[in-house]
Amino acid sequence: MFCVQFFSRHASVQKILAMSSVTRCTSKSVKHGRSVCLRSIFFNSVKYYPTTLVLGIETSCDDTAAAVVDDTGKILGEALHSQNEVHLKTGGIIPPVAQQLHRENIERIVKETLCVSGISLDELSAVATTVKPGLALSLGVGLEYSLKLVDKYKKPFIPIHHMEAHALTIRLINQVEFPFLVLLISGGHCILVVAQGVSDFLLLGQSVDIAPGDMLDKVARRLSLTKHPECCRMSGGKAIEYLAQQGNKLHYELRAPMRHHPNCNFSFSGLHSNATRIIMQKEKEEGLQEGHLMSCVTDIAAAVQHAVALHIAQRTHRAILFCIKSGILSQTNATLVVSGGVASNQYIRRALQIVTDATNFNLLCPPPRLCTDNGVMIAWNGIERMCAGLGVLHSTDGIRYEPKASLGIDISEQVGEVAIKVPSLEVSLNELATINL
């Protein structure tokens, strides 16, 4: 009912939805999918039947994605429809718009995935779908579609925690044994957890306000970077990273927050407020109204990115020291996994590399395409759960999506009580180059 009222009242939203055809170029075309499917059939006269095949479906935010993965970790097929261009035009994600675009594209994306993989729905071992956390309207589309599939084809259903999927993606491409430390940084989350098993996590810290990706997007919008000729088609975070390469990170002072809080929690709202204050001051100095490009955008972008990287690095450093001191992780062959959309930022990766070098940890990151939301990570999480015999449902009665959901057992208070002092690595971090990373 809400959606009907929303669309009837807002003609602008209908106009936005009409633009969705523009975004379809970011996904493989159905025609292309068919050609790949035909090649697959032609070149594979003897069909390969692995033990387990899982279809993963992801609609937690603004990407409609699907993939088929087998129990060896082979990605047999995948497809993704990005809504990025639509949301860039609106200055942010409008949930009913995202919901409608998911509805328009989910069946096509799943069919394309199956066609490319050469796998039929009857051959699947299970369907895995993100049910938490995320935008309620977006999660609902994926869940509704998936439940119809499993009911029609009598397949097991595996509900997936979005952040668990991000945390376990690294095991698809690297032989990483439990336990290991995970930093998940994205537009909606910033958490530090220890992965002790497929569904066994210890929460060390999380953002107490907004996520780093959200903060970077907000700063990009305030800087009107969609009007910048070099990054007008980039997401906010990507635009900040791109322009920061040309700027001086020390031109503006943005100190890392929570310096006197000896825990592993994060905070980015203060950084956002300070960046906004600097922007308003520079607009006044240059005689510009909000919405116009300033001459100093590269320096502001560099300063903001550096402050975010420094804050993330400092909190992660404390998490590493806590894990070693408490015996949760051994310092021998210990690993830090960094995943989520913001993990594709190369400057932040370099800051974390300095921390792991200083603590003798291995730093592992999925490739950028698997850091952002995708169907592969959902399918792989389904494989992991099937192999472990965890959360594989043969009845979907009572299944609901959960817009908010924590990950693991929260021991963040214990981390704060230990109050580990973090050795200063700020000199090394300040020497980070902002170009040619």
TrEMBL record:
Domain Gcp-like: 74-380
One GO cellular component term noted in the UniProt record for this chain: mitochondrion
Keyword flag Metal-binding: yes
UniProt KW keywords: Acyltransferase, Metal-binding, Mitochondrion, Transferase, Transit peptide, tRNA processing
Domain of life: Eukaryota
Co-factor requirement: a divalent metal cation
Recorded catalytic activity of this chain's protein: L-threonylcarbamoyladenylate + adenosine(37) in tRNA = N(6)-L-threonylcarbamoyladenosine(37) in tRNA + AMP + H(+)
Cellular location(s): Mitochondrion
Coiled coil: none
EC number: 2.3.1.234
Cofactor binding note of this UniProt entry: Binds 1 divalent metal cation per subunit.
GO biological process: tRNA threonylcarbamoyladenosine modification
MF GO annotations: metal ion binding; tRNA N(6)-L-threonylcarbamoyladenine synthase activity
Function field: Required for the formation of a threonylcarbamoyl group on adenosine at position 37 (t(6)A37) in mitochondrial tRNAs that read codons beginning with adenine. Probably involved in the transfer of the threonylcarbamoyl moiety of threonylcarbamoyl-AMP (TC-AMP) to the N6 group of A37. Involved in mitochondrial genome maintenance.
Family: Belongs to the KAE1 / TsaD family.
Name of the protein this chain belongs to: N(6)-L-threonylcarbamoyladenine synthase
